[in-house]
Amino acid sequence: MVILVAGVAEAQPLRVMALDQCADQYVLALRPDAELALSPRADDPDAWMREAAAGRRRVRPTLEAAIAFRPDVVVRYWGGEPRLLARLEASGVRVVTIEDATDFNGVRADIRAVARGLGVPGRGEALTARMDATLRRAAPETAARGRSALYLTAGGFTAGRGTLVDAILDAAGFANAAAGPFFAPVSVERIALFPPARFVLGFFDQARGDWRGPGRHPVVQRAANGRVAARLPAATLTCPAWFAADAAAMLKAGK
């Protein structure tokens, strides 16, 4: 945007509104120089870029907030109800949607799409290259490939084929022990009777999250004792983004 002040053209910073926590991560990484309006969850403990969000404006993802902020670009993953999105697009605001990636090619496509929408394709390529470098570090030696592991959340869910978690396990050289595709609950009884060789625990760092969930059941804790390959923080798992590669690196390192 360019305005005239006393006959002099003065460039105004791009105004970018993020409608949810995943969008926050993308705009903070790709356009920290823009005037940002982040979601209320931008600095939550499960936000990867929470430190970069400090001191930034926060707004609720509502039509009223959008009218007041007057964004040039809006970025979203799941946030924004249909009335808001329709009004924004009708007003000429560029709306960029992060797709639900299930593998790292999908993440690459998301990074590039958001970077183009924010006018910084070069930054998108740099972020993609950084992710790919992390994936190379996460890749195990050939002899270490094929170790079976079950991903388990505190709420008692696992992730099979067709999920980004499955891609994270594969990137670190693990075979996914989940029997079916997509996300599904895992019963305490099944874990007690058929304990997996290894566990990859996710979201257990959220002390208040699912504190009575099946994943925290004493039977599950006993089954997992000595078999935990890694505990992945929620911040690496809440969004289809470049930091999924960091989760793979943590898994390789046994963190």
Brief account:
The protein has 255 residues and is an alpha/beta fold. Helices cover 35% and strands 20% of the residues.
Written account of the structure:
By secondary structure, the chain is of the alpha/beta class. 35% of the residues lie in helices and 20% in strands.
User: Count the helices. How many?
Assistant: 9
Distance between the termini: 45 Å
Tell me the radius of gyration.
20 Å
Overall shape: it is elongated
The major β-sheet equals: 5 strands, parallel
Number of strands: 13
Q: Order of helices and strands, N to C?
A: EEEHEEHEHEHHEEHEEHEHEH
Fraction of residues in helices? 25-40%
Strand arrangement in the largest pleated sheet: 5-4-3-6-7
Mean pLDDT: 91
Structural class: alpha/beta
Q: What are the low-pLDDT stretches, counting only 5+ consecutive residues below 50?
A: 1-9
Strand share of the residues? 15-25%
Secondary-structure map:
Elements: E1 2-5, E2 8-11, E3 15-18, H1 21-30, E4 35-38, E5 57-58, H2 63-69, E6 73-76, H3 82-90, E7 94-97, H4 104-117, H5 121-138, E8 147-153, E9 157-159, H6 164-171, E10 174-176, E11 183-185, H7 188-193, E12 199-202, H8 218-224, E13 228-232, H9 244-253
Parallel strand pairs: 3-4, 3-6, 4-5, 6-7, 8-10, 8-12, 12-13
Antiparallel strand pairs: 1-2, 9-11
Helix pairs in contact: 4-5, 5-9, 6-9
